[in-house]
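SAMPLE LOG
Freezer: B-3
Tube label: C17
Construct: single chain, 288 aa
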Amino acid sequence: MRLGVAPHRLWPAHEDEQDSVLEVARTAEELGFDHIIASSHLLAGRTGVTPDPLVLLSAVAGATTRIGLLTSVLILPLYHPVVVAHQTATLDRISGGRFTLGVGTGWDATEFDAVGVPFAGRGRRADEQLDTVRQLWRDEAEVRLGVRPRTPGGPPVWIGGGSDAALRRALRYGDAWHGFGLDAAELAGVRGRLAELGEETGRDPATPLELTAGLLLVPPGFEAAVHTPGQRPLGGAEPTAERVRAELRGLADAGLAAGSLWLPVAAEALPDALGWVAEEVLSYFSEE
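STRUCTURE (predicted):
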């Protein structure tokens, strides 16, 4: 199982908490993490102050050489698909093919109101947008992008959401399904439902859909700097290295191909928290 990490804590409270993200990204690369993740909320609110994901990941691309770059997730219905296709093709090219486009349909109607986009019907629009983006990446549309992606056919696409509509979307347009905060039993349920829906959508069995997820982790000896209501971190309320590893192993056995860690610790504690994960978790999986 591949493990990535966010370069800032989940739901940062202030803009200055973003000032160290490039340093954290370089540290994550040096420690052996697979990818860096960036979410996308336009407005300050319940999710704190979130930097633009494509701008952030472009900066990370220039500050690193190996580590992957993932939007987790870009709220696709807020954007014009031609613009998204061009921006992501550019990022894929300048990063040397390290980019993965993770998308979702969003849940905060306030953001949609702010940009004048209808909240209703966003799932249907996301389907249409993904089809358009894929065609533009493959140079199969009526117009041609100014920049073609480096990755043949375009970068991988991870699609989030737990509804049947979202699972069908992932099967039709995605390379991976992307969840959040699941345990092994819940992941097995998603895997079973995807199998049931696979025939309906005409997914080629020869190209199975990967299972990926965002995961919360407060390492032992660290304090959560923000409250994460309704979200259980890996290892529970009193985590140990053994419990965290056991839960990740259970997720891997249930089919999780990649986990993206959000560490809701204080900004100044994040480098040390990454060090703990590298020593107690990454090293464990790399030995298998």
